[in-house]
Amino acid sequence: MERNLSREAHLWYTITSPEYMDRARDHLQAAVNIMIPQAKTHPFIVDYAPVPYWGGRMEDLLRTYANARALLVQGEYGEMIGWGGALMNIPRGLKEGNMNWMSSGVDVFMDELNSAYSVCSDFNFALTMSQMFKDDAYKVGQKDWRVCVPEDMGIVGDHITFYYEDLFAECPAEIPEYSADKTVSCKTGDIVPWTGVWVPADGMGKAALAFARKHIQIMQPAYHLIREDEDTGDEEYDIVECTWHPVKPTGRMIPFPGPFRHDEDEAGTNGPLRCPAGQPCPQAGWWSSPAEEDSRRQFAAGEVMPDFGSDYGATIWQWDLDQG
Fold first, then answer.
1. pTM over cut 0.85
2. Are 141 and 61 found together in one domain?
């Protein structure tokens, strides 16, 4: 399918918005509403360290959310990045303990936590490259980004349309129209003058749009994704130092370009055959990841795909053609 600037920009702006992070807060609040009342009925639970610790962390995050959101509205992303990172530790921490003390709602509770995790993962992943290029050493030439950031470590190429369009409960009838503001430019290596989505001056090609932050970072190059190995997850890039323009709404609404879907594959599924860690499983069945030996396991649809955090790099799960 031909790439569409408005479609992709709308997804980037949605994932990095305060309104999107509100979903994480709402899921976290729902989880707290299930857990805390039950914890109060078990006096012994204060002696089981994981519950008061993680329950306290959840309540702390709810208390501090308003401040993180207010900063995000002002264009300060750091506090919300930290908020999301702290939340993402909670499902793992609770899973490592024993939740049998909960008399009801354990599955719903974990589903709410996993949904909150997924939203935070989306948000932080979309800001990965902005974080990578904010090192002050790049700004003064003490470090060479060409060596330190040899590949796109965030949402690559046109993958945002593969993996993130289903964040809409229903496909919208219209989305904002976006276009490049050619009155503003920033070259690779220069300090970014404006916060938001950027597009290479010569068009997207095979590179992802960039989300860059004013004064925080230098502008990245365009990472054109020229090869993907479906078996190993290896990716090859053509790295191009270029001029970028900010992508801004024109003030018009346009018809939604239509849902992006993969053609039906030989395994007989309609979902994507690859899924990054932190995202909900798009198809129930057996999956594996080249990031870990003997990783093959079965997932339910919607279950959050785990991250191995290995030296291999990003954890990408792949649909196993052998579903026996």
1. no
2. no
Domain extent for 268? 264-324
Residues 204 and 231 in one domain: yes
| H runs (alpha helix) in the chain | 5-15, 18-40, 50-73, 78-95, 106-126, 128-132, 136-139, 145-148, 159-163
The answer on 66 and 24 residing in a single domain is: yes
For residues 3 and 260, what is the distance between their CA atoms, to the nearest angstrom? 10
Q: pLDDT for 227-267, tens place per residue?
A: 877 666 678 999 999 999 999 999 999 988 766 554 434 33
Query: Residue 214's pLDDT is what?
Result: 96
Measure Cα distances from 246 to 5, 183, 187, 290 in Å. 12, 9, 12, 36
12 within domain boundaries: no
Give residue 30's pLDDT. Answer: 95
Pair 24, 102: CB distance under 8 Å: no
Question: Could you give the 3-state DSSP secondary structure of residue 173?
Answer: coil
Amino acid at 267: A
Residue 178 CA to its chain's centroid (Å): 22
Please state, in angstroms and rounded to a whole number, the distance separating the CA atoms of residues 29 and 195. 30
- Please report which confidence band the pLDDT of residue 222 belongs to, taking 50, 70 and 90 as the band edges: very high
Domain boundary among 89, 107, 126: 126
> Which single residue is written with the structure tokens 């290995």?
310
In a domain, 5, yes or no: no
Nearest to 245 by CA among 219, 223, 218: 219
Domains: count for the chain: 3
- From residue 278, give the alpha-carbon distance in Å to each of 16, 163, 303, 308: 16, 11, 9, 11
Question: What is the pLDDT confidence band of residue 312, given thresholds at 50, 70 and 90?
Answer: very low
